[in-house]
Amino acid sequence: MTTFTTIRGGETPLIEVDAAKRLSKIDPMTYGGFTEHMGRCIYGGIYDPQSPLSDSNGFRKDVVEALRELDIPVIRYPGGNFCATYHWQDGIGPREKRPSRPELAWLGTETNQFGTDEFMAWLSVLSEGSPEGKRVEPYLCLNMGTGTLDEALAWVEYCNGTRDTYYANLRRANGHAEPYRVKYWALGNEVWGPWQIEQMTADDYAKKAAQWAKALRLLDPDLVLILCGQDGTASWDHTVLQACVPVVDMHSIHVYTAAGTSHVKNVTAPLAAERAIRIAASLIELARIERGVSVSRPPTKICFDEWNVWDPERAPGDKGAEEQYTLSDALAVAVWLNVFVRQSRYIGMANIAQTVNVISPLMTTQNGVVRQSTWWPLLLFSRYMRGWTVATHVRAGAYDGETQPAWLQGALEDGASWLDVSASVDEQGYVSLAVVNISDKEDFEVEVKGIAGKDVSVYTITAPQVTATNTESKEEVGMVEGMWNGEGPYKFPKHSFTMLRWKAQ
C-alpha cells in the first residue's frame, strides 16, 4: 500500500520505503494473460501453421520465446465475448471434420482449427521455458450464452476426467491419455452487457450461476469457480455476490482505460480501477458477512481478468482491435500495475487483455515480433514485482484537473500524485520501487528514504515525446539499464517509468 500527502509550500518531494513492513502477498497470478478468438490473437498470432516461423504444431516460435520472458502464470481462453456462442466440441477431433461457424461476437467466421487440445498443447510448449518448470495454468471460460449446463459439465469431464466415462474417453481417443487438470473456470463472460448473446439480468444470472456451480462441483470438487462481475462499482456486482458468494472462489471484474490525446487523463485513468478494486472488495466482505460464509473458508478474491488501455474508437473490436501503443499508454500500463501491487491484498488473479496482436504489448509480422511500448513495464513488473507489497509513503505535488472517467476527479481528495508509486520485497530480500512520473512537463528531484548506501539497479522507460511508438521499422520506446549509488536525491524524468532495485538489510 502507498500513502500520499500533497506537498505544502517549498517541501522537497519524498518517497519513503519501509521494506520491513510487508503488508500483503502479491499473488503470482497477477501477471496472467488472455487469449481470445478475436482478430489475429489466435490465428496469425499464437497459431500460424503457414508461417516459416512456426513449429511443427503451427505455433509461432518467436511468440512463445517472447512470452516466456514474462513468466506468465495463467492464460484465460477462449474469451471474452467469443465464448458466448462457442461450442467447445466443434474444436476437437480431426481438423478436417471440424465445422466452420458464424462468429457473432466479432462478426467473423470461426474455423475451429484451434481448440481445447491445441490450447493445452500450446500451454505445454510455453511452460517448457518457465522457471523451475512451473506450469502455465489454463483458465477456461464457460459459454453461458448459447451454451448449456450439460455442455459445461462435458467440457470439465473432457479436461479433467479420470474415470471410464464418455468424455474422458473421448479425450483419450483424441490422443491425450492424461487429464489436463484445468483448475480455473469462469461462469460466463460479461453477461450483463447489451452486446452479449443471451444478456441476462443480475437476478437471472445469479440463479443460473449458483445452479451451475453446484453441478460443476459435484463433478469436480477441486474447481476454482469465478463469478461474472461487472466493473466492481455496479449494482450488478452487489446482486450477484449476495446470491453466489457462498459457492464461488473469485469475483471477476473488467475495466479498460483510455483518454484520447490527453496524456495526463490517460495515465491517471487506471486510478479508477483502484477505486473499483476497493469497492468490489467491500461488496465481497459485505456479502460474506450477510450470507454467513464460514471464516474457515478462504477469502473470496478479485479476478481482474480483463484490463488494459483500449480505445475502441481508435482500435475497433470488429476490425481486430490492433492498438498502436504510445509512451503515454506504456505509462498508463505501469500505473495499472502499480494499482495491482498496492491492492495485492484483494487480487487473486489479473489478466491483461490480450496476449498477442489484439490490444496487446506483442505484435506479430511476417518477419517476427514487435514489442510495443507497453511491453516494457509489463516485463519489469512480471520479472521483479514479486513477493510482498511493502509500506510506502509519497509526498509530492498533485494533478487535480479533469479525469477520465469524470467521477474520478471527485474521488481523489488530494488529487493524483505526479509520482505514482508502489514497492515490493521478494523472497531474496530485494526491494523493487516502481515510480511513474506522470507529468509530461516536469522532472522531479526526489528524496528517497530507505535506500541510502545501497547499490541500486535502475531501469528507465521513456522517450522524447509521449506520442512515441514502436513499429516493425522503428523502436522509439525501450528500456535503459543503469546503476545508482543511492546517495542524494534521485531525478525522475518527465513522462517516464523508473524501477529502482536494491538488496534490503
TrEMBL record:
Domain Alpha-L-arabinofuranosidase C-terminal: 305-496
EC number, UniProt record: 3.2.1.55
Pathway: Glycan metabolism; L-arabinan degradation
Domain of life: Eukaryota
EC class name: hydrolase
Pfam family, one: ASD1_dom
Keyword tRNA processing in annotation: no
Catalyzed reaction equations: Hydrolysis of terminal non-reducing alpha-L-arabinofuranoside residues in alpha-L-arabinosides
GO biological processes: arabinan catabolic process; L-arabinose metabolic process
Cited InterPro entries: Alpha-L-AF_C, ASD1_cat, GH, Glyco_hydro_b
Keywords for this protein: Carbohydrate metabolism, Glycosidase, Hydrolase
Annotated family: Belongs to the glycosyl hydrolase 51 family.
Protein task: Alpha-L-arabinofuranosidase involved in the degradation of arabinoxylan, a major component of plant hemicellulose. Acts only on small linear 1,5-alpha-linked L-arabinofuranosyl oligosaccharides.
Protein name: non-reducing end alpha-L-arabinofuranosidase
